[in-house]
Structure formats: structure tokens, C-alpha cells
Amino acid sequence: MSVFTVVTDAALSDWLKQYNLQLVAFQGIAAGVTNTNYFVDTQHGRYVLTLFETLRLDELPFYLELMSHLARHGVACPAPLLDQQDRLASMLAGRPACLVSCLTGRDIETPNPAQCRAVGDMLATLHRAAGTFKLSTVNPRGPAWWNQAAPTLYPLLTSAEAASLREEIAFQASHRTSHLPRGVIHADLFKDNVLMAGDAI
Length: 201
Prior knowledge:
With 201 residues, the protein is of the alpha+beta class. It has a domain at 9-101: Phosphorylase Kinase, domain 1. Helix content is 33%, strand content 15%. The protein has 5 helices and 5 strands; from the N terminus they run αβββαββααα. The protein has helices at 9-16, 60-72, 113-130, 143-153, 159-174; strands spanning 23-28, 36-42, 45-51, 90-92, 95-101. Strands 1-2-3-5-4 form a 5-stranded antiparallel β-sheet, covered by helices on one side. Strand 4 and strand 5 (95-101) form a beta hairpin. Helix 4 runs antiparallel to helix 5.
């Protein structure tokens, strides 16, 4: 189960006061590998609580503002809620946390052609909407990360594999694309990250 940070009833109830919400019930969400997620039922409906296990509070504005922007522009993605201090995130149980709308639908193990088309259409909507998003950020898995992560891998690889990885990193470093147009991509578009309602998203 992907609940890395345990939240108590009392702590969550107190935190929800920032949103003028009263806790009815909550339960951990098993899916996911990076963050802790809970379904949160309140007197005003169901939301999803995310506690970020690796990102810092000061790193969240780009992602949460992007989600808000996309949701306002027709993309079927969770919309973060502003608390009474106009914040999209704050600390809970020692972790940066946010509350977002809870989408309907379910993930599909074997999508049909109509569902694949719906995903493609929504991805196009995302790309168009992201074109007017003003914030930007550095790719967190770009060259700087490659050079930090690779040394931890080399001891686990055969000499041929390590040589291949070193060669690829050097090749990529010599063929940078910073002069090309750039924009927001999904970067985590897997079946379990898409909720379908029949053949629609």
C-alpha cells in the first residue's frame, strides 16, 4: 500500500479547517509509488489528499499551478483547492500536502481503441492548454540528474553496461536541444494514471 506517511484523524481534521471542511472519513489509496494519497470524505464531498514524499513545499507551486491551469482549460485532471490563506499547499504530518478534486472513473487494464483515442484527444487538449501556462521549471530528470544518478548505478552494472551508459550520457551531453521549442508534457502517462468512464475520460 502506498501510504508512506500516516496521518491521524485529529491532525487531518485540524488541517482541513484551513479549507473550512469537516472530516467525515478518510482512507489510504493503494495505487502509486512516490507520494502518499488518501481519499478524504467531508461534509462537502470527496477529495484526494496528497502528501509529497520527495518534493519540498517550495518546489510545488509549478506543479500545482499547472494542474489548476489545465483544469480551468478543459483538461480532465484534479484541481487543487486553495485554502483560506490562498495557498495550494501547506505542511501536514511533516510533509508538504495539498487537497485536490476527486475525479470519477477507473483505470482500465486493457483499453480499447475508443479509449486510446480519448486519451490521445485529452493529451492534445493538455498540450494546447499548457501553451498558455506562464511558469516554467527545469527538467528534474535532465542532465544534472543523470550525472548524479549514474555513479550509483555503475557498481551494479557489468563493465560493458557501465561503458554503454557512460557513452550514452556523453553523447546526450554533446547533443543538447535547449535551442528547440519546449513545453509541458505529461511524463507519467501510464494506464493506472488514466481514469475512464466507459470510453470517455
